[in-house]
């Protein structure tokens, strides 16, 4: 009888020990998951000092903001490529900056325009070129750009419709490409005159 009681007590102690161990493991698991989530949320919080007063700023999810960055990169590239003045240094500067946002298809278009004397004609005619973005349509990693380019010459003002398209890939961010976006397979699908208004000369 005494031996049976001892065995029962040992079994009870063993069950209680195993139960306690299992409960501890489950609690530790829940605590670890909760702590990990808390740390992840804390990392998305940024404090900005305003006159020595800390202000909490929430860091946005990168993927949620990616479409806006895609559009900003496409808009900036077209602005650099199509906004030109009759200054060879300025043209060279614009083109060198634009090339950071596009692959060899953009380099090919630039070289093609250069061979055809496009940039020399800007210099010789003292033309000022500016582009206005109408819209940028995204379809996952593809885009289509719609804009109007104004060419202001001594003799006339020409307005052109510019439509281009291409694909977008993510690349590491850099000082020259802060959006981390590269335009690939870029091509112009429309570049036609909408109006040609002659200027009155005296």
Describe the structure in your own words.
- This protein has five helices and six strands, in the order αββααααββββ.
- The chain has two domains: 57 residues; 137 residues, Nuclear Transport Factor 2, Chain: A.
- It is rod-shaped, with a radius of gyration of 32 Å.
- The mean pLDDT is 86.
- A hairpin with a 3-residue loop joins β4 and β5.
- A four-stranded antiparallel beta sheet has the order 3-4-5-6, covered by helices on one side. Strands 1-2 form a two-stranded antiparallel sheet.
- The chain is 47% helix and 34% strand.
What key phrases describe this protein's structure?
four-stranded antiparallel sheet, 5 helices, Nuclear Transport Factor 2, Chain: A, 6 strands, rod-shaped, two-stranded antiparallel sheet, alpha+beta, 202 residues
Structural topology:
Elements: H1 2-43, E1 45-50, E2 53-58, H2 62-82, H3 88-98, H4 104-115, H5 118-125, E3 128-139, E4 142-152, E5 156-170, E6 181-198
Helix pairs in contact: 2-3
Low-confidence stretches: none
Structural class: alpha+beta
Radius of gyration from the alpha-carbon trace, in angstroms: 32 Å
- What is the tally of beta strands? 6
Strand and helix order? HEEHHHHEEEE
What count of structural domains?
Answer: 2
Indicate the CATH topology of the largest domain: Nuclear Transport Factor 2, Chain: A
**Main sheet properties:** 4 strands, antiparallel
